[in-house]
Amino acid sequence: MNKYCREIEVKIVDYSENMLDKTQREIFLAHIQDCEDCRRKFEEFTAARDILANTAQKKDLNESDKDLLFKRLTERGRRSKIMYNLAAATVAVVLILVSTFIYSTVSYKSRLQQAGQTVISSEFIIDVEEELINSDEETFEMLSSALYGDDYKEFEEILDETSIIKP
Amino acid sequence: MVVKDVRDDRPERDYQSFNDRELVSMFTDGDRRAFEEFYKRYHHGLMRFIMSYCRDKNLAEDVVQDVFVKLIGFKVRAGLVRNIKSYIYASALNRCRDIVKKEQKNTALGDNGSNQSVTDDSAAEHIDIEIMNKNIQNLPERQKEVLLLRTESDLQFKEIASILGISENSAKVNYFYALTSLKKMMGGNFNE
User: Fold this and answer.
1) Which one, of A9, B134, B98, A27, lies nearest residue B106 by Cα?
2) So where are chain A's domains?
3) Closest Cβ–Cβ partner in B133, B172, B192 for A10
């Protein structure tokens, strides 16, 4: 048994169904002549195929139910279209409800977050302000500039108004 | 006043140029000619295959109807079915398998109604066909399916492989052994 004998069944079917090109056909036929096992398989297959072709069954297929089938299909098609549209409408409504819920939740959260940020920033300012109060003049000016930019003078005014003692 | 049917102005459509998916969508919307084209493409091959598998014409008609109706289902409409041909044959095959399983169960319980005997006065050709049919039923399941899809529905091995979920080579090997086994089973019963 040589390498070509492997899957000879596939090659026999390919040959019988005219699926081999010219070179492949020549190689196949040469092998069949040389290899007794493969030749026997080929002959068995060819004989079986001929028998099957000779007893090809003529089945009487009438088309009387074609109209009925078409009617059934179009009716089902119409019904399924209605169901399909209904399902699509339901999905759309659900999507709208879900997105509304998500939007309101997110906006509520963001409002909460904003409120949280305000608290954090005021805490931060209070901390810095305490440091400012306890620092010397040079540090005070440096920190004020860093915190309020050139407008730190306004901060001094705020300090004056809130009667916090400047160092 | 004569009212002109607006449909008369429609350009003539070449239905053969439409693919399966387009035809399904068209006949679902009531296009009779699209249905005719689809029917022409598949009905005959499907009927032959199912009749050979189940050996019952009425059952075959029911299965074909069910398979066609399935085309209107969600899977096809939503575009989840890539190959309509493979889909309808795979659906038919599944139904046939169920029917045969049920039949075998009934036979095991002692109901032999579906077995048909071959009478002595039948024509030789008829005997050949009957014996052949009987022997096809006795082939291993996979071989039988490949053989019927190839011989009754004239499907390509590539298509058969796709329907059965096997490789093309495996389909060919099964076809080879189905035919040679069939010949062995027939023995001297053939009028060659």
Assistant:
1) B98
2) 3-54
3) B172
A10 close contact with B: CB closer than 8 A? yes
Give the pLDDT confidence of A29-72 residue by residue, as tens digits.
999 999 999 999 999 999 888 877 776 655 555 555 677 777 77
Domain made up of B17-111: CATH architecture: Orthogonal Bundle (1.10)
- Hey, are the CB atoms on A44 and B44 less than 8 Å from each other? no
pTM of the predicted protein model: 0.64
For the domain covering B123-187, report its CATH number.
1.10.10.10
CA dist A46 and B179 (Å) reads 9
Distance CA B116, CA A48 (A): 24
Residues of B in contact with A14 (CB under 8 A): 172
Residue A140 · residue A167 · CB < 8 Å: yes
Are B30 and A10 in contact (CB < 8 Å)? no
- Angle (nearest 5°) at CA B39 between B93 and B80: 55
Q: Contact B35/A80, CB-based, under 8 Å?
A: no
